[in-house]
Write a structure and sequence with these properties.
133 residues; mainly alpha; globular
């Protein structure tokens, strides 16, 4: 399974777990979670850092709250930010994949929203890292 397909499964697992409605072991793709290290690494990162990841999303929203974001877009952002923080793919790849997920699963123009939030997150993260050096 290529990385693109793995990202789709990561998103689908995190989506199913939104608001704690489904336990990880009960998700539709738990077998793939157990089989693929990358899927388990990103899902586990989000599971252990959900408050921090959600905080990162909140910090980059304008005129929205996390709860007001549609479930698809909210979980695409969770997936992408978790991967940006704990994955090994280039930032541009992660953003492009998030946009593809938004086009596939989201509303008509949701990819623009997802792109904007992620670009703001990356810009601020890069600026913070530059300031620490």
């Amino acid at each position: 399974m290529n990385r693109h397909e793995q990202r789709k499964k990561i998103f689908q697992i995190i989506f199913q777990q939104d608001h704690g409605l489904v336990a990880l072991e009960e998700t539709a793709f738990y077998d793939l979670y157990r089989e693929y290290d990358y899927i388990s690494r990103i899902v586990d990162y989000y599971g252990g850092n959900s408050e921090s990841v959600d905080g990162d999303i909140r910090n980059h929203l304008t005129n929205y709250t996390l709860e007001r974001i549609p479930k698809v877009e909210r979980n695409i952002l969770r997936t992408a930010i978790s991967e940006l923080l704990h994955g090994d793919s280039p930032q541009r790849v992660v953003i492009n994949e998030a946009i593809l997920l938004a086009k596939l699963y989201g509303e008509k123009d949701s990819f623009r929203f997802v792109n904007g939030v992620l670009k703001n997150f990356i810009t601020e993260t890069d600026e913070q890292q530059d300031g620490e050096q």
